Inverse folding.
């Protein structure tokens, strides 16, 4: 007998509620998925993608990793983006970070944690790039929260610079990339004013988003 029986019980109760509210839901869901959104978020257990935007299974395609980082050599993330863009034809890619992100905090503090240090080096690069802006924050907590925002904006730029997104725009595909951040203290999402739908507007929108944080 599994010592995680309570999770199986939870699963049955959840499936029962879904089916009661929408009879035949799972049969319909099993035949296809047709989401309009790709969510790239943090692995943090306090940031459940579907729940915080109140979407049902099948409505949100999801990729999560520590500190919601998009790297051009990460074949896992790139494969998710390609499948979402080229095959599912999502209309929106949402990069959503969150305040009080442990990965961002450890990157800011230049902690030594082991293997993950190599991954968080990408966020340290963001901190280095914007060190003058971060230096304006005399309070360390405020500086870390700012880095959480800057990290999202940089990852949006990385998404937009992938060949996948660039080629989608070149062929006229309807696709917008967004940068959001989630508040653990109030459960609310904040738009970071970086919403990009063409390659031509990338630099301008990026610069304005950074300036809005100054």
């Amino acid at each position: 007998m599994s010592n995680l029986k309570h999770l199986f019980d939870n699963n049955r109760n959840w499936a029962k509620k879904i089916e009661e509210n929408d009879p035949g839901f799972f049969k319909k869901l099993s035949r296809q998925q047709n989401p309009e959104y790709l969510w790239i978020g943090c692995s943090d257990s306090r940031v459940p993608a579907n729940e915080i935007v109140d979407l049902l299974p099948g409505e949100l395609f999801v990729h999560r990793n520590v500190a919601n980082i998009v790297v051009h050599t990460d074949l896992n993330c790139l494969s998710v983006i390609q499948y979402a863009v080229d095959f599912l034809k999502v209309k929106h890619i949402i990069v959503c970070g969150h305040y009080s992100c442990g990965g961002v905090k450890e990157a800011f503090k230049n902690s030594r944690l082991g293997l993950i240090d190599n991954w968080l080096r990408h966020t340290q690069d963001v901190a280095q790039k914007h060190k003058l802006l971060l230096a304006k924050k005399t309070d360390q907590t405020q500086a870390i929260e700012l880095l959480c925002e800057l990290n999202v904006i940089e990852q949006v730029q990385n998404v937009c610079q992938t060949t996948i997104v660039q080629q989608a725009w070149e062929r006229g595909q309807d696709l917008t990339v967004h940068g959001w951040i989630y508040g653990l203290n109030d459960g609310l999402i904040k738009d970071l004013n970086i919403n990009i739908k063409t390659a031509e507007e990338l630099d301008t929108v990026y610069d304005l988003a950074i300036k809005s944080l100054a």
The radius of gyration is 19 Å.
